[in-house]
Amino acid sequence: MNGDSFLLDTNIVIGLFSNDPFIVGKISVSKEVYTPVIVIGELYFGATQSTKRDENKNRIKALIENSNILNCTPTTGSFYGIIKATLKSKGNPIPENDIWIAALAKEHNLSLVTRDKHFDFVEGINLAKW
Question: Number of folded domains in the chain?
Fold first, then answer.
């Protein structure tokens, strides 16, 4: 996996679901696009809280069927521990799920696509701000 390969954060997938033309365009020309299983969980959580539960759950199911989903492994856990310890030592905590997403990006050497600024605190990951 390399520079033309991307790992999508939840806010990017939501933009994709909203047909954000910039995100749709970037994804259409990307070599490989991956979605973390953590993002799937966050999307399902959002769907259960929405007024369009069935519609949103169907979008998530379609995403799963048409995407490369990355699951966590013991190696992901190792990266998670390093990232969390580094963030804690510098006084820059970020949400737990985002630490897992960053760990997957590091493990697979993928550029993490996000609109969240707190990923700037994570050392050693490539960020793409779409």
Answer: 1
Residue range of the domain that includes 29: 5-116
H or E, element range at 127: strand 127-129
**Would residue 79 count as lying in a domain?**
yes
Question: Is residue 123 one of the residues assigned to a domain?
Answer: no
Do residues 97 and 38 lie in contact, with contact meaning Cβ atoms separated by under 8 Å? yes
CA 108 from centroid of its chain's CA atoms: 12
- Angle at which helices 10-17 and 53-65 pack, to 10 degrees? 110
- State how far the Cα of 72 lies from the Cα of 51, in Å rounded to an integer: 30
What residues pair up with 111 in beta bridges, in sequence order? 6
Could you tell me if residue 126 is inside a domain?
no
Digit-coded pLDDT (tens) for 13-38 = 999 999 999 999 999 888 899 999 99
